[in-house]
Structures are given as C-alpha cells and as structure tokens.
Amino acid sequence: MSPSPSAPKLTSLCVFCGSQPGLDPVYATAAKTLGLSMAAHGTELVFGGGRVGLMGTVADAVLAGGGKIVGVIPGFLRDKELAHPAATEMLVVPDMHSRKKLMFERSDAFCILPGGAGTLDEMFEIITWRQLHLHNKPIILVNVADYWGDLVRLLGKMRSAGFAYRSPDSLITVVDLAEAVVATAEAELRTPKMAV
User: Fold this and answer.
1) Tens digit of each residue's pLDDT (9 = 90 or more) over 3-21
2) φ/ψ of residue 92, rounded to 5
C-alpha cells in the first residue's frame, strides 16, 4: 500500500558513520545497501562530505543509484583532500560545530551506521537535542552485526539507573538491516515519537 499524497516523504537523510571502512565487510555492504535504497527512493544524502570509509561508500552508492549527495565538511578536512570529488553540493564550514548544525538543518531524519568516536559524538548530540525537545526528527540506529548492541544496552541502563527519564525507544529506533532505514524513518515522520 503506497502512502497518501499528503503523507510526509523522506526527502533528505543525514548519515553519521565511520571515516574508516571497519574490518568486517558487512559494514561496507550495509553502507552500500543504504545508499542504493536512498537513491531508489529519491532521498538526498546529507553527510560529512568525505570520500573515505563508510562515509565514502554510502555517498558512492547514492551516486551510483542516480541520487544526490550534499557534503558538509570543515575547511581543514577539505584541505587534506578528503572531500568527496563528485558531491552534488559541497558546503565548506569553519569547524565541527558548524558542520553538525548545518547537517541538522538540511535533514529530515538521521541514520547512524557503525563508526568510531566522531560518529558517537554526532549521534549523542542529535539524541541529546531530541531529549531536550529541540527537534523531533527520526533517529535510526542500524545495528549491523550487533555493532551497537552494547550501546543500546547502556542506554537502557542509563534509564534503569536513574540517569535518563526517557526510554531509549522514545529517542531512537533500532533496526538490524540497512534496507529498513528509509521506510522506518518515513513511518516515523508520519507518526512522530514525541512532541517537541
């Protein structure tokens, strides 16, 4: 059943992920699957602008599927020649804080693939903003091969230990498969989890 003409459409998705590919090929496979599904749906990619790691894999897949990619990169990373050369649009910002703010403004929803400390930083900031009612955009965590399993359990422990008043389920949606991201985010756009 197709959504009604008035149903919200996921026009842009911000993807946070590693600037490294990871050791298990399953991570790159998930990134490619996500990118191709975004392109097939007509969802623009908003990302950190890099050509390397999972970031580059998602971007390449979106482009291969005929989609558009919007990179947001600080000048110092562009100067290291890490910017994706085929970006539909490349926005150069002065610092990491400006990068996160602009990525937020350009996106309907967020997706987190495996990554390192930078990915955690981006993810926790966007979750915190939602917890503080600064936005109510979908946040989809892709738990590829249980990569984020310990983190999901920690988020639950924060609540049970009295350090969070909201259940993790009210802030993020966890999926195991990258191909589920677009439909999951769009469903949440139709039925938001909480009021801002």
Assistant:
1) 555 678 999 999 999 999 9
2) -100, 125
